[in-house]
Amino acid sequence: MSKRIEVKDLNVYYSKFLAVEDVSLTIEPRSVTAFIGPSGCGKSTFLRTLNRMHEVIPGARVEGEVLIDGDNLYGAGVDPVLVRRNIGMVFQRPNPFPTMSIRENVLAGVTLNNRRISKSAADDLAEKSLRGANLWNEVKDRLDKPGSSLSGGQQQRLCIARAIAVSPDILLMDEPCSALDPISTLAIEDLIEELKSEYTIVIVTHNMQQASRVSDRTAFFNIAGTGKPGKLIEYNDTDTIFTQPTVQATEDYVSGRFG
Amino acid sequence: MAQTTAAPAVRLSSPTPPPRGQMSNVYASGRLGRWVPWAILGVSLIISLAVFALFQAASGGDFNVAGAIVLTGVLNGILIYVTALLVEGIRKAKDRLVTTLVSSAFIIALAPLISLFITVLSRGTERFDLQLFSESMRNVVGQGGGVLHAIVGTLIMTGIATVISVPVGLLTSIYLVEYGRGALARAITFFVDVMTGIPSIVAGLFAYALFSLVFGPGVRLGVAGAVALSVLMIPVVVRSSEEMLRLVPNELREAAFALGVPKWLTILKVVLPTSLAGITTGVMLAIARVIGETAPLLVAAGFTQNMNYNPFEGRMQSLPVFVYSSYVSQGTDAQAYLDRAWAAALALILIVMALNLIARIVARLFSPKLGR
Asked: Where are the coiled-coil regions (chain A) (predicted)?
């Protein structure tokens, strides 16, 4: 399952402060889209509005539309819980649940929602998700060990396994590799490449090489200065962004002249 | 040469000085051996014992133990500072002086506790027998009798107080941490702080006044005592669980939200289990805080010599009140009353200790597994 994201004229506010201004873009299903840009330009904020996770922060609100295959996330009567069940998210720091074992962590999306699942179905789901996250071979003999006993990279893949275990339509990743070493980063990038065949993936990254390696399309965000809102500067195929950007700021950023 | 100036102290320093002709290590300095502080402590003790023995011989009277201990402490501080200054230099000397001060402060803080425990243990064991735990005081005027009625009363009233306070306190702290915003949350925090400072007798009067509204004046009930205790317990539970809930990283809540878990399930299945160990410890501390309360129980639950298993009817005895009343009104055989009072105090201390032990075990069982 994989869905198209259409964002129309989206403004994000923290109380009165306009954090992201007037973003419109379309993300195709079964593709990887990277958001790049300097710190504080609203990439993560914007990413969070794609599954209404920004609402966790008091005072955050949104104007505009986010259409997932035509359904508006901000329409009347939309339940953010249902939204998040279909749009998964992986965070910057690996955050496995410390009270749960590896297996329980993978199944958390099912068990935390009080859904009943048979033992064999749970085993199958855990194995499928861990295989999906390229972690099965490393942890299959210690599924009952706590999730925090794994290394940072393994924990992050555990979090990805946990996210794909609920079979979402879209997977959002907020700098998933920034706390990891190059080997673990490579493992996750390979994983993103494989997951692309089933999910729409949106990834925020500070690493431009990573954006150019994994993504099909890239969006560049920037701010005019502190206190100003972040804006979408340019959105195009990754090759175009990195070789022939149309906006000067994008070229400066991707060529390393600032930022 | 530094080697020669330090020569008198070489005997005290444990590492052997570098052989002649070899360059000495620039990072090395004189070091006192591990035994030296203990030796200095021993020397100070001997000197002050000798001094006070002389005083005793000169003026007669008792040997001044307290004076000897104080002098030992002062001498030890001075001697170790001077020795370290000569051998190790000013920084280490200060370090040793402060170490001595901190250790003394620790011992001073611990002394009353140990003294109390030894006193209760030595006097309480007199009547600490099976009869104490199997009989009430009904129809007992002299020797014999037991405190079973008081133990049962204490357990029932503290138990009811816990049953009332833990849900109220825990839900309040969940509201404060997870939902509370603005004026209401601030007001609750303020009033919880105020409640922490309520004198326990006032809590007892409150419970008495509340129950006398319903049952008429002069009412004494076990459940009234429990209500008084819970008034004291709730703020402690709120405060400690609030701290524990705030310690749960926000990332875990976000991880659960991102899986499409509703907020109440996130709190129930992620936040609470993660902080369960700390909350349990807090609840146990709150119980330990109220189980020794005397005044509110005296007012609200009264005292009795009879067994009473029913908190909703009649007066109910408790251990602290038992200790108080048998000390205040010693009967014909005063020593029997005193012995029972001490034994009851010992039983109370042991109950609190057992609760703390259980709390630690529970905390260990439920604490998040860290793997390594």
From this structure: none
